[in-house]
Amino acid sequence: MSSQVLVPVDNFAPWARSVAKTVIEMESSDEMSVRLLHVFDEGEHQSTIDNLAIDGDPSLDELAARKSAVSAAKALLQEADFTTDIEGVKSDKPGKAILSTAEEHDVDRLYVYSRKRSPVGKAVFGSSNQYLLFNADVPIVVLPADAAAEYAPNRESLPEIEK
Closest Cα partner for 99 from 11, 29, 39? Predict the structure, then answer.
């Protein structure tokens, strides 16, 4: 049986590339495949369809594959000879969607990117990573908030991080 890791990918390509690079450094492409997951909320799902000017009702997997951050991670992983699968899901609870996908595909590990948030920010906006850390049945590799600096053209292009 082949092993698989799950990499949830948000909308920021430098984060996605940073996580992909970590997977490449820590895993063997001969033994591990990578499932890239993008979780859409209702608004993002519709705006993605509108922005891409897609006719009909594309699958969530098709939409996820067209996200720039997912494409960036996939390109790095495939260049390193990893088998990749892309999955899109729709949920207003990303942490639960990630764990559900991990369980459904019997993944061995999760690789996630962290953001620094103040305690108030966590209380107001929640924290998917905190949910994952408390509820996952598999090991989680968490990259620090500044790990994407190598992939961002300049520090100003990184999303604002609360202190």
Answer: 39
Q: How far apart are CA 55 and CA 67, in angstroms?
A: 17
pLDDT exceeds 90 at position 19: yes
CA distance 73 to 13: 8
Reported as a pLDDT band with limits 50, 70 and 90, residue 38 is very high
Per-residue pLDDT tens over the stretch 121-143: 555 455 788 889 889 999 999 88
Q: Nearest to residue 35, comparing CAs of 99, 85, 90, 106?
A: 85
- Number of alpha carbons in the 13 Å side-chain half-sphere of residue 31: 6
Is residue 144 classed as helix, strand or coil in its secondary structure? coil
Q: Say how far apart CA 148 and CA 116 lie, in whole Å.
A: 13
Q: Which amino acid is at 89?
A: V
Contact 78, 71 (CB under 8 A): no
What's the whole-model pTM score? 0.84
Distance CA 144, CA 114 (A): 6
Closest CA relative to residue 114, chosen from 76, 70, 158: 158
Q: How far is CA 15 from CA 48, 54, 86, 110, in A?
A: 20, 26, 17, 15
- Which band of pLDDT confidence, cut at 50, 70 and 90, is reported for residue 163? very low
